[in-house]
Amino acid sequence: VAKLAERGRAVMIGTRNPVSTLANAQPDRLSNQTFSDWQAQHPQIKLGTFAEAAAHGELLLNATTGSGSLDALKLAGEQNLNGKVLVDISNPLDFSRGLPPSLFVSNTDSLGEQIRRAFPDVKVVKSLNTLTAALMVNPGLLPEPTAVFVGGNDAVAKATVTALLKNDFGWQTVIDLGDLSSARGTEMVLPLWVNLMGVQQTSLFNFKIVRQ
Ligand SMILES: NC(=O)c1ccc[n+]([C@@H]2O[C@H](COP(=O)([O-])OP(=O)(O)OC[C@H]3O[C@@H](n4cnc5c(N)ncnc54)[C@H](OP(=O)(O)O)[C@@H]3O)[C@@H](O)[C@H]2O)c1
């Protein structure tokens, strides 16, 4: 989000309750900052309800907890979502049986497809769910080029997201995996990703595809 604002985009973050998000004294586990401290450093980024953020955006990003994504999008409101491109970076992680998480949908279906079925007029593009947030907007943190994937049913929407990944985030290798059923594969990569994070003790790694 900060990267998008840096690139001159007018960004709004949605939350269930802006007042409690601003009052939350619990630091975020990745940035180790409270939301209000973070926002003080990014005053140009607005905070609103999910509905206000969805109404504000031309391009939408679903970065909500997988188990809450459908609820968050319902709160965003179909009328604010329809016709728009939604980059879905969520993962269907199920922590109900502890660690490591399992997936609450997989194999013959995916969270990306569940979102599309619930909101058929939204142009869902699955992307960025296979790597950690710091790398999403800064692939150059790794010593060699790696890959990011896109999958979705709308070619124009995928081209829009690919342009964002390349021009705003600096990706060189964006692999189009085909339609949204490809989200099954990119979501099912998560158990491997979690395993790799555990054994390497870092989240700063990514997949590289080498072909003939
Ligand atoms: N963090 C990463 O590096 C990373 C990498 C790849 C993919 N992802 C995926 O991106 C998504 C976001 O991850 P995150 O690490 O930023 O944080 P997160 O804690 O998984 O998600 C926080 C967001 O989810 C919303 N939320 C939580 N429960 C909800 C519910 N029951 N109903 C509606 N909304 C709910 C929160 O809304 P409130 O503000 O109202 O609490 C907040 O917007 C996840 O699906 C994750 O798997 C994350």
Report on this model:
Strand 5 and strand 6 form a beta hairpin. It contains eleven helices and nine strands. The protein has helices at 2-6, 18-23, 35-41, 50-56, 66-76, 78-81, 111-118, 133-136, 155-168, 183-188, 190-200; strands at residues 12-15, 46-49, 59-62, 85-88, 93-94, 102-103, 123-127, 147-152, 173-176. The strands form three sheets. The protein has a five-stranded mixed β-sheet, with helices on both faces. The radius of gyration is 17 Å and the shape is globular. Helix 4 packs across helix 5 (66-76). Helix content is 39%, strand content 17%. With 212 residues, it is of the alpha/beta class.
| DSSP helix fraction | 25-40%
Strand pairing plus helix content: what structural class? Answer: alpha/beta
What is the end-to-end distance?
36 Å
- Residue stretches low in confidence (pLDDT < 50, at least 5 long) are none
Tell me the strand order in the biggest sheet. 3-4-7-8-9
SSE succession: HEHHEHEHHEEEHEHEHEHH
Which small-molecule species are bound to the chains here?
NADP nicotinamide-adenine-dinucleotide phosphate
Mean pLDDT: 97
Oligomeric form:
single chain
* Strand residues, percent: 15-25%
**How many strands, what sense, and barrel or not for the largest sheet?**
5 strands, mixed
Form type: globular
* Continuous helix count: 11
Quantity of strands, as a count: 9
Radius of gyration: 17 Å
Task: Explain the layout of strands and helices.
Elements: H1 2-6, E1 12-15, H2 18-23, H3 35-41, E2 46-49, H4 50-56, E3 59-62, H5 66-76, H6 78-81, E4 85-88, E5 93-94, E6 102-103, H7 111-118, E7 123-127, H8 133-136, E8 147-152, H9 155-168, E9 173-176, H10 183-188, H11 190-200
Helix pairs in contact: 4-5, 5-7
Bound molecules: NADP nicotinamide-adenine-dinucleotide phosphate.
